[in-house]
Amino acid sequence: MGVINGLLGAGGGMLAVPLLNAFKLETKQSHATSIAIILPLSILSAFLYVRDQTVKISDALPYIPFGIAGAVVGAMLLKKLPDLWIRRIFGTFIIYSAIRIFMS
Questions:
Q1: Burial class (CB in 10 A: 0-12, 13-18, 19+), 89
Q2: Tens of pLDDT, residue by residue, the chain (104 residues)
Q3: Integer angstrom CA distances of residue 91 from 4, 44, 45, 63, 66
Q4: Do the Cβ atoms of 21 and 57 come closer than 8 Å?
Q5: CB neighbours of 37 closer than 8 A, spacing ≥ 6?
Q6: Closest Cα to residue 17, out of 7, 8, 29?
Q7: What is the distance between the alpha carbons of residues 104 and 73, in angstroms, rounded to a whole number?
Q8: What is the three-class DSSP state of 9?
Q9: Alpha helices in 10-82 (DSSP H)
Q10: Which of 2, 15, 46, 59 has the fewest CB within 10 Å, making it most exposed?
Q11: Helix H or strand E encompassing 95
Q12: pTM to 2 decimal places
């Protein structure tokens, strides 16, 4: 998951959720645990990219408030949505991501 996170930018969640589901965690638990795993990996990756001057913090700053707002909304929705809808949304996102990767 760490390698995928470093290559794709927090893409490790695409591997973490199915892996956690395979270990019999409930859907909501898998998604929440995935975020808990990916958060420190994302912070470390961001630090390394900034340190190596691959990215400038000033380039990322305009997106941070939207990312935080999206995280809050997503966490609230995770509590309220039924597991079936969470799986459908996640599956749709995975398919969309795969199509974008293959098209680029």
A1: middle
A2: 667 666 666 566 777 888 888 888 888 888 888 888 878 877 888 888 889 988 888 988 999 899 889 988 988 888 899 989 988 988 898 899 889 888 98
A3: 18, 27, 25, 25, 23
A4: no
A5: 1, 12, 13, 16
A6: 29
A7: 30
A8: coil
A9: 13-22, 27-51, 57-60, 64-80
A10: 59
A11: helix 83-103
A12: 0.64
- What's the token pair of residue 65? 């408030």
Length of the chain, please? 104
Q: Take residue 77 and report the two structure tokens written for it.
A: 């929705």
Q: Which residue has the tokens 């691959």?
A: 54
In which residue are the tokens 């898998």 written? 30
